[in-house]
Design goal:
This protein is of the alpha/beta class and about 260 residues long. The protein has six helices and eight strands; from the N terminus they run H-E-E-H-E-E-H-E-H-E-H-H-E-E. The protein has one domain: Vaccinia Virus protein VP39 (Rossmann fold), CATH 3.40.50.150. It is globular and about 55 Å long.
Length: about 260
C-alpha cells in the first residue's frame, strides 16, 4: 500500500524511510508481549500488523479511512478491521481487549480525556494500553495535523487519571538517527526564517496543511540524499528505549488497568 502524505509516512517512499523505521520500532518492541484480544486504534496502512501474526493473537484494527480498512481486510483475512472515527469506541463492549495499541494517535484527538476513558472502558481488568506519541521537547515546527503535543510530565498526569500504573520510556536513536534529526531541524529552521510574523503559530491548521506537506516532502527528499546517502541505512534496530523519557524523540508508554 502506497500513501504519499508525509503525516502517514509510507514504507514505499525512500525519503520516508528514517521516519518509517522510527515508527516501526515500538511495534517490534511490544510484539512479544501481546496475546489474546488485541485492538489497534488508528491502524493506518498497517505498519506493524505483520509483527502480530501469531496463533496467540486475535487482532482487530480500526481506522477512519475506509479504503485503508478494506485493503487491509483483503491482505490480512485472518484479522478483523472496522471503520471507526476516534474517539468513538461505542461499537465495543466493556472489558473486551487484553491489549490496546495507540501509536502516534493521541496527538490527533481533540477530546483526549474521552479517548482514554473509552480505552479504559473496553480494556479487560489487568489489560494494557501501549501508547506512543511525539515528545514535544523535540518538535521541530508546528505540525498542523496535530491537535496538541505532550511532554512526559503532562502525558503522565493525563494517563494517571485513568490507569493504575503508567510506565513511560523514551524512544531514542543512535548517532546516525540524531544526526538525521538535527539536520532536519536545521533545514526546517532555514525554511522558517522567512516566517517573520510567526504565522505558523497564528494561522488555522487547515491553511497550513498544504504548504506543510509540500515543504516537508521536499525536505525529506533533500535529506535522504545528503550525508552520502547514509540516512537510507537507518532501521528500527538503530533505536532503543531510554529509561528517561525526556531524552526520547518519542514517548512510549505501557498503562495497566486495575483489576477492580
Amino acid at each position: 500500500m502506497k500513501y504519499f502524505k508525509t503525516e502517514i509516512t509510507s514504507d514505499h517512499i525512500v525519503s520516508d524511510k528514517p521516519l518509517h523505521e522510527r515508527l516501526l520500532f515500538p511495534y517490534v518492541q511490544i510484539a512479544p508481549q501481546l496475546k489474546g484480544e488485541v485492538l489497534e486504534l488508528g491502524c493506518g496502512w498497517g505498519r506493524g500488523i505483520a509483527h502480530f501474526q501469531s496463533d496467540g493473537i486475535r487482532y482487530t484494527g480500526v481506522d477512519k479511512n475506509k479504503s485503508l480498512i478494506d485493503e487491509l481486510q483483503t491482505n490480512y483475512p485472518a484479522c478483523r478491521f472496522q471503520e471507526v472515527t476516534l474517539p468513538d469506541l461505542s461499537i465495543f463492549p466493556n472489558n473486551s481487549f487484553d491489549h490496546i495499541i495507540a501509536f502516534q494517535v493521541i496527538e490527533h484527538i481533540e477530546e483526549d480525556e474521552l479517548f482514554l476513558e473509552e480505552i479504559h472502558r473496553i480494556l479487560k481488568p489487568g489489560g494494557k494500553l501501549h501508547l506512543s506519541t511525539i515528545n514535544r521537547r523535540f518538535s521541530i515546527s508546528r505540525n498542523p495535523w496535530h491537535i496538541r503535543e505532550y511532554d512526559s510530565i503532562g502525558l503522565t498526569v493525563l494517563l494517571k487519571m485513568f490507569f493504575c500504573t503508567v510506565d513511560m520510556k523514551g524512544i531514542e536513536g543512535n548517532e546516525l538517527v540524531w544526526k538525521y534529526h538535527f539536520e532536519n531541524r536545521k533545514a526546517v529552521k532555514q525554511m522558517m526564517r522567512f516566517d517573520f510574523f510567526g504565522l505558523q503559530y497564528k494561522l488555522p491548521a487547515m491553511l497550513l496543511r498544504i504548504p506543510y506537506e509540500l515543504l516537508n516532502r521536499l525536505n525529506r527528499k533533500k535529506l535522504i540524499h545528503s550525508q552520502q546517502g547514509k540516512f537510507r541505512d537507518i532501521s528500527w534496530r538503530h533505536f532503543h528505549l531510554n529509561e528517561n523519557p525526556d531524552l526520547g524523540l518519542d514517548l512510549l508508554v505501557i498503562c495497566t488497568k486495575a483489576h477492580s
